[in-house]
């Protein structure tokens, strides 16, 4: 019980919980979609039994992973995989082809889908958690794993919508998670038995392990993930005409002809709606304004698509878009404004810019949290990504 009073234990627990929340969001989507076809009285049972099976399976897999980390050079391989996983978190995903595996309308069929999906999709979680526990847990690695998984998986399952909304609204959470994986990867490399243990491959030169080396390697890994992620994301951006970002105080009436209004249900997007309504009143013919109301959902990992049919995924994205659009639609309806609704799936910034081009809009209006240019680029701001990809002016409303 003495371990409960050490800072290292709680730091490691925090790392495990954050890893599970970041990398387990897709698992939560599978659980929700696999059980949605069950009768209402069985839906909770399906979620409970599927989650229980996933927890047991996860702990067993991590136990074996912890054992395997004693093999020379396996930590180096695991570190490289974590770097790749961390970079993938920072690079916008695109919708992948969907398989036709249907969610079951039988209780045990749904439970089986949840457990099999968790087994297939948990390689990244298992390696990352094993690395975090082994680096910080010492003799209490399994206790850390069990405690962290028991806490985090219920959060994922029952708080999945809240977690997903937080990550959509604050992309810095994803950036921090990717850098955390890089940190763990760096510390894994310099603690590989082949590099530090004189009894393992004694013919190889060893490095003197110290706290300074571990922290330095962890920081290097975190910065490597951030740099690679931003570099790859930048290379994926299509070549477009540089957009002009306008402040809310500049005259825009001349451009209020065909407007794309991008919303996500947040307070900044609500302010953008009100600002656009105020600008509309300044027009000589407000009814002539062609307004396109847009919400873009981030794509679900292709791993999820292997276990959930296309129709269920489309319904899932539609439900989330409807919720995000609700307050904006209510405000526009109350003001008597006519508009067209568009729902998209993809990286929000590029997708909003693409929709504006397709609909021949001459202005994009959206809310922003008011981050500086460099901070927004670093943390993955949707507004910043829209400005960088759009070929028309973007009006950002704080």
Helical content (DSSP H or I, runs of 4+): 55-70%
SSE order in H/E notation?
HHHHHHHHHHHEEHEHHEHEHHE
Please give the count of helices: 17
- The low-pLDDT segments are 95-102, 238-251, 373-379
The total count of strands amounts to: 6
Radius of gyration, CA atoms, in whole angstroms? 24 Å
Order of strands, main sheet, comes to 1-6-5-2-3-4
- How many structurally independent domains? 2
- Structural class by SSE content: alpha/beta
- Principal-axis shape equals globular
What's the average pLDDT?
A: 77
Oligomer: single chain
Strand content: 5-15%
Distance between the termini: 49 Å
Please give the largest β-sheet. 6 strands, parallel
Walkthrough of the structure:
By secondary structure, the chain is α/β, with parallel strands linked by helices. The chain folds into two domains: 2-236, no CATH class; 245-397, HUPs (Rossmann fold), CATH 3.40.50. 63% of the residues lie in helices and 8% in strands. The chain is built from 17 helices and six strands. Strands 1-6-5-2-3-4 form a six-stranded parallel sheet, with helices on both faces. Helix 1 (7-23) packs antiparallel against helix 6 (123-137) and helix 9 (172-189) crosses helix 11 (211-236). It is globular and about 85 Å long. It starts with 6 loop residues before the first helix and ends with a strand. Residues 95-102, 238-251 and 373-379 have low confidence and may be disordered.
